[in-house]
Amino acid sequence: xxxxxxxxxxxxxxxSRMLGAIFDTTDSVILGLTPDHRIFAWNRAAxxxxxxxxxxxxxxxxxxxxxxxxxxxAVAADxxxxxxxxxxxxxxxxxxxxxxxxxxxIWNVVRVLGADGAPSGIVATGQDIxxxxxxxxxxxxxxxxSQDGLLLADDxxxxxxxxAALRMLxxxxxxxxxxxxxxxxxxxxxxxxxxxxxxxRGLGAITLARGAHTFDWMxxxxxxxxxxxxxxxxxxxxxxxxxxxxxxxDQTRRREVEQRLNLAxxxxxxxxxxxxxxxxxxxxxxxxxxSVQLARNEVPPSFAIHEDLDLALRATDRAxxxxxxxxxxxxxxxxxxxxxxxxxxxxxxxxxxxxxLPASVTxxxxxxxxxxxxxxxxxxxxxxxxxxxxxxxxAMPDGGTLSITVERDLTLxxxxxxxxxxGIGMDEPTRQRIFEPFFTTKPIGSGxxxxxxxVYGVVTQAGGTISVDSAPSRGTRMRITLPCSDGAFTNxxxxxxxxxxxxxxxxxxxxxxxxxxxxxxxxxxxGFTVLEAGNGIEALKLFDDHQARLSAMLTxxxxxxxxxxxxxxxxxxxxxxxxxxxxxxxxxxxxxVSGDLARVPLLQKPFAVxxxxxxxxxVIESRPRAH
Length: 627
Fold this sequence. Notes:
This protein is an alpha+beta fold. It has 18 helices and 23 strands. Strands 1, 2, 3, 4, 5 and 6 form a 6-stranded antiparallel beta sheet that branches.
């Protein structure tokens, strides 16, 4: 028998020996099959692969004995096609070995003709490509399921891409990318202002020189929106030609985190500045307010100057509120421990909110949910809601719709407050800056730029988050989430005594002479006797000399050498139950204060005389009397 096409002459014995040697020494599997799939030739590589000696294999039905069941019909059909004259190259099938393992082979198959010219069988030469196929499958799985966009490109453009790359661009078919260049999916300008086409050529030159390069890029989605990506390009060789292996990593989340970190750093810097001046500023306000209060007490209400003094008092209160707003985003509000029903708060505020809005703004409220408890300072939450509503109002100068929604997510144990307007919206650069202190888009004199900074500070310090969705002419949606609490906690303060019939002596401690002197005069006019000290060491000496006649100590927190907390600790060592009150330009004790001192009342400067009297009366009355 001969192969097709026929040889011109019969092989010599030397040829036969050479062919036999090649037949048994080659690494390729060589086998011969009759038209009914019976084995008539079986080389040593076939013996090794199929774990079957030649003597056993001869005469076996190859298709039934060694081909995977799901491939048998296809292999039988290919054998018939080759016998009919079809040339079959690179045909793949899976073989099942006697030990049950599966191997993939790729075959070159030719037919064998008998002396009469009729096909008498086929000869197949196969290569075991199992390892290569497994490697290809692993790479294909990585390629197809990677969350990064992956592309292969050559001089003609993109030759392959994975589903992630399509998703990033909002495309659905590979055909939309194949043959095109990556730069075609870019906006005209990159964020640095350079033309995408020009910058792409420059980056391509760098990649060619280095062999690999990583850079940031902005791509354009099908819907016209932009997506920031980190691009990694590496040159490789595929079947003798140079290709570029490209990876796109979506940087949207990273950019958001970076923006939050930048904002947090800015807030921290401004907060540190605010903290540095707040104490001194509030001391000045306290001295001014006390002096004005003293003057007002001396002036009959019928005098015209009485109204001027009232105006001065209100001005110092507003100045103190400004300082408080700065401090609101500088550090956590550890003293805000009340349980607040967020939905009830918004419903109760509705009349106030409506009065703050023009008639051209329609309010839609969805806050019927009950039991949406969060742990926070109610006055601060009031301010958050009011600031969001006023911000929405300013975004709708020609009127519109304001929607306020309160929801509760039981799965996440979160409460959500959403304020949405149909106003002018914001572009992306503005959206990124709205929580920065003192940033405002309003005309000079129309806003301080602290409203949304306060919102950010209160929400984040309460363990919540705030997100903003806005675009020009599409309005703005602000969503605040806060961790829910069980609603069982309450914070009730003892009712203050309304008056005192006992003449008390107060130890007053403050390093600011103006605050100390004006506070002393206020107390003396209310019937108190006051011993004053300018620092903690001096105060301890006075306490030691006059302990028996002292009713309470009122001390500033921030003082040189010995601060108010250390002074209070020293006094409590001498008298464990001695009444103490703090007053300070800050509205909290600060970290590290625990035990009984954490429950010491704190009066924030500047203060009204009524607030001062309530604090002192409470601490004096709280001490058990000896029987």
